[in-house]
Design brief:
Structural class: alpha/beta
Number of domains: 2
CATH class of the largest domain: Alpha Beta
Number of strands: 16
Largest sheet: 6 strands, antiparallel
Distance between the termini: 32 Å
CATH architecture of the largest domain: 3-Layer(bba) Sandwich
Number of helices: 12
CATH superfamily of the largest domain: FAD/NAD(P)-binding domain
Strand order of the largest sheet: 10-11-12-13-9-14
Strand content: 5-15%
Shape: globular
Radius of gyration: 22 Å
Helix content: 25-40%
Order of helices and strands: EHEEHHEEHEEHEEEEHHEEHEEHEHHH
Length: 434
């Protein structure tokens, strides 16, 4: 390939504009296709590029958090999203939050001035496998494009989930309370169990049924026929959860009486560093999830790496189709970025676009490169979506997916991760002495 080639980028969200920016920086011409405002999705309100449809927060800027480190990695790699976020920042303590309208307008301003990027307001319903293309669509791609992708990949390649329970870190679980056991001792004792007495259960129950839920948009209300949010189930009666996700039968701790209720956690990653709260699919606000679920004994210091959500989402079974460059394994001219690739979160989506655009540019220019490793948050996300797993679910940035080290001091461990990550990013950029 050569730099005279034009790359098609499908989707003008966070991933699409980031991919376009990275390609343009290296002299590659881009046609950026965005169907809005001609054909909008139910979630969007404007026709601006990179519209934030949910929160206006990009989470913590503390570099000792996974989110903060991701921001710094992206800043070093010249992220347009990070630039626009700081240009439209509003006060929110340690978090990086933005005025969402100013943010999108800043993105529009930067992109419109870029002579290498042509924005085309048109719905793309298909693509050619031999034309350099980055598919950078979010969780609600158009029906036509979704159907084309399913036909293109030759199998039921798109997953739809209506209910997701929170995923938490093992590190935040109190094992003075928690214990390992499988129900009725069937199979290996791989589940973590959190027992409650009657008083603890009633306290949790009362807070759960009185907690605040997310207000659903009309397009989301027909999604829940086959699932039940835990807070809705709880409202059916004070003992409803005892016959469902908090059923204690078969989870008795050795030489002890049966607990009144037991919450159970299931392994969620190969490293056994994150766990899924079984049966806790929820529509609670993120703030309420942390508050209410921390009332479960053993989860006082709960650290949630992926919050529960109750809406339709669309994503590839990426480990089958993508490598750790977000490139399709069978179609080298096609890259996939954004939430459809299996990352979840604003900056995670943007980082996938950053990497896809950067690597495709190097492919076009014939430049040798080594993908970022799992010593970085960006590389870890790319590794996560391309690694075969028993059950593949979208993932946020968190320290449990990077290459681990054994250190008792949690702060020193995080400082090590930061130093190691930034060293690799600088080396990737050719800044050997940084």
């Amino acid at each position: 390939m050569n730099q005279k080639i034009t790359v098609n980028v499908i989707g003008g969200g966070l991933a699409g504009v980031e991919a376009s920016h990275q390609l343009s920086k290296q002299g590659i011409k881009v046609k950026l296709y965005e169907m809005r405002p001609i054909n909008s999705s139910p979630a969007h309100k404007t026709g601006f590029l990179a519209e934030l449809v949910c929160s206006n927060s990009f989470k913590s800027s503390n570099i000792l958090s996974a989110s903060g480190l991701l921001k710094e990695e992206m800043r070093l790699l010249d992220s347009i999203i990070i630039k626009a976020a700081y240009a439209s920042r509003v006060e929110s303590g340690e978090s990086l939050s933005v005025d969402r309208l100013l943010f999108s307008k800043e993105i529009e301003r930067i992109i419109s001035k870029d002579e290498n990027i042509e924005v085309i307001r048109e719905e793309i319903c298909s693509f050619d496998k031999d034309t350099p293309t980055i598919i950078a669509v979010g969780p609600l791609p158009s029906t036509k494009l979704s159907n084309f992708l399913k036909d293109f990949l030759g199998r039921d390649s798109l997953h739809f989930f209506d209910a997701v329970a929170p995923i938490i870190t093992k590190e935040s679980i109190d094992f003075n309370i928690a214990y390992y056991k499988s129900r009725y001792d069937k199979g290996a004792p791989d589940f973590i169990n959190l027992p409650m007495n009657k008083e603890e259960y009633l306290n949790f129950y009362n807070e759960l049924v009185s907690s605040e839920s997310v207000v659903l948009e009309d397009f989301e209300k027909n999604v829940f026929e086959g699932c039940m949010p835990i807070e809705v189930l709880a409202k059916r009666g004070v003992k409803a959860l005892l016959f469902g996700p908090l059923k204690p039968v078969g989870l008795e701790k050795e030489n002890e009486k049966r607990s009144y209720a037991v919450a159970q956690l299931r392994i969620d990653d190969i490293n056994r560093s994150t766990y899924n709260l079984i049966g806790f699919q929820t529509n609670l606000t993120f703030k309420e999830q942390k508050r209410v679920f921390s009332l479960i004994p053993g989860l006082k210091n709960i650290s949630i790496v992926r919050y529960g959500v109750m809406h339709k989402n669309t994503y590839l079974e990426s480990p089958i189709y993508l490598n750790n460059c977000y490139q399709m394994k069978d179609y080298k001219n096609i890259y996939v970025a954004g939430q459809i690739s299996g990352v979840e979160g604003y900056l995670e989506s943007a980082s996938s676009g950053l990497i896809a655009g950067n690597y495709m540019a190097k492919q076009i220019l014939g430049t040798q490169f080594v993908p970022l490793s799992t010593n970085t948050i960006i590389g870890s996300l790319a590794n996560y979506i391309s690694t075969k797993q028993k059950t593949f679910n979208p993932m946020n940035a968190n320290f449990s997916i990077i290459s681990q080290v054994e250190m008792k001091d949690k702060r020193l461990k995080k400082e090590f991760y930061v130093k190691r990550s930034l060293k690799e990013i600088n080396e990737y950029l050719g800044n050997k002495n940084d």
